[in-house]
Design goal:
This protein is an alpha+beta fold and 142 residues long. Helix content is 39%, strand content 20%. It contains seven helices and four strands. The chain has a four-stranded antiparallel beta sheet. The radius of gyration is 14 Å and the shape is globular. The mean pLDDT is 97. Bound molecules: adenosine-3',5'-cyclic-monophosphate. The site of adenosine-3',5'-cyclic-monophosphate (CMP) has 8 residues, from loops. One of its GO terms (molecular function) is nucleoside diphosphate kinase activity.
Length: 142
């Protein structure tokens, strides 16, 4: 099915000047951008986005990292977009990420892993709505 998924280019990649290189990976793979913006997350926004991880030991450092600089958030759209985006990203830990994946090529650590992508249809729905209103999403399939 055609799906939408939420993608975040994290502060490490924005700082490393890799926004365009990462977006090119999505486009070259046939995923389309239905929405795109650059934002500086507040602490409350980052905590809310990652609420499912709030009991994890890395939660405070995750929030600190995600608010350390601007991020680029986008809605990717396409056939099986959720799993295709996760395949393009590679494993959460860049040391375990396959060759040719975004995290293998652009990330430096599990805590600074270049990109985030929704992990299920339920998360995608929540995460897209977390950052974008309906009028900001320029779908080409609905
Ligand atoms: P992300 O897909 O954005 O979702 C949660 C994030 O927590 C994850 O990517 C990692 O960047 C981050 N994180 C930091 N430390 C860890 C860890 N030890 N295990 C898993 N995720 C971690």
């Amino acid at each position: 099915a055609v799906e939408q998924t939420l993608s975040i280019i994290k502060p490490d990649s924005v700082g490393d000047n890799n926004i365009g290189a990462i977006i090119a990976r999505f486009e070259e793979a046939g995923l389309r951008l239905a929405a795109l913006k650059m934002i500086q997350l507040t602490k409350a926004q980052a905590e809310g986005f990652y609420a499912e991880h709030k009991e994890r030991p890395f939660f405070p450092s995750l929030v600190e990292f995600m608010t350390s600089g601007p991020v680029c958030v986008q809605v990717l759209e396409g056939e099986n977009a959720i799993v295709r985006n996760r395949d393009l990203m590679g494993a959460t830990n860049p040391e375990e990420a396959a060759e040719g994946t975004i995290r293998r090529d652009f990330a430096t650590a599990v805590s600074a892993n270049a990109v985030h992508g929704s992990d299920s249809a339920e998360s995608a729905k929540r995460e897209v709505a977390y950052f974008f209103s309906a009028d900001e999403i320029h779908t080409r399939w609905a």
